[in-house]
Amino acid sequence: MTDMTHPSDYRKLIIHQITGDFRTSTQVVTEAWRAPQAGEVVIRNEFAGVNAIFDKNLCRNSVRYIKVDPPFDMGIESVGRIVAVGSGVTHLHEGDAVAATRLGSGYREYQIASASKVIPVREPSAETLALIPTGISAMVGLERIGEVRDGDTVAVSAAAGGLGHFVVQLAKLRGCHVIGITGSDEKIALLRKLGVDRPINYRRENVREVLEKEYPKGIDVAYDSVGGEIFDAFVDHVAFRGRVVVSGHTSDFDKEIELVPQARAYRKLYWKSASIRGFQNQAFPEYFDDTATRILQLFYDGKLQVLTDSKSFVGLDHVADAVEHLLAGRNTGKVVVRLR
Predict the structure, then answer these.
(1) What is the strand order of the sheet 9-15 is part of?
(2) Residues 76 and 166 grouped into a single domain
(3) Number of domains forming the structure of the chain
(4) For residue 169, what are the domain limits?
(5) Is residue 242 a part of any domain in this protein?
(6) In a domain, 63, yes or no
(7) What pLDDT, in 10s, does the model give residues 226-285?
(8) DSSP run (H or E) holding 83
(9) Is a pLDDT exceeding 70 seen at residue 2?
């Protein structure tokens, strides 16, 4: 085992109480340094990704498959450099840039990871962080769940967001006609630059009316992370054998369940042989490694633009600011916290 100079302890963000609010639920604490064991590496994190809705739900202990028992480590994705290597690890070395994706490993200055689980990258940049795992989610959701085909008509909600801007570009690479939905004229201009064929500012235009008038044959793939009326419009305008991919519902995730008086979904889907498909990236681990390789190569080849939000957040003390910024919908692209 080799070991570079390291601190005796380092800082990390934890949930120390369940309040339902990120800022009051979390605090920064210190943890003692531990050398890597066999098969492990220590990574000095440089950037961490913000997943505000998931983070807030953890602070409510409302993620169905996770029991939050404080103190609970926070953060999922990060990129950085390896500073220590455990015995038996031969394919990774000190100084290597890597990406890691594991609950409890992101919002901290250092992390210990299984050497078999990290992904080598060229640089530990904010762009690389956005690709893994958000870019992976876009590719798996579009290809494996949405089963996109060349030339499909694809609609994307929150199209200028951290996830949506990847879905847009991946669909365009398949020769698809892309409808991109957003909430500001500034983002409309950005969507046009990304290649969106029909951008819609839902605050200025009625999404349902646009789809009825301009897309009478319907949508082949709808990639939705917003829910609410956008989801309803997608379901009502899905094409024959079309697919509606649900990867979140930001419009009402923190609200009481709404009882909507309308026809049951099967009446809308059956005669079209269409479907609604729920998607969470962690439920499809079998696609992760191959998709990571492919999405990174698209970026390295200059075929994929990565948008990171221009608002700067530096240090663990400002993670709550970043979470609130994202929850308020003020972001364009992936929200990132610089840890160094």
Answers:
(1) 26-32, 9-15, 72-73
(2) no
(3) 2
(4) 134-282
(5) yes
(6) yes
(7) 999 999 999 999 999 999 999 988 887 777 887 888 889 999 999 999 999 999 999 999
(8) strand 77-85
(9) no
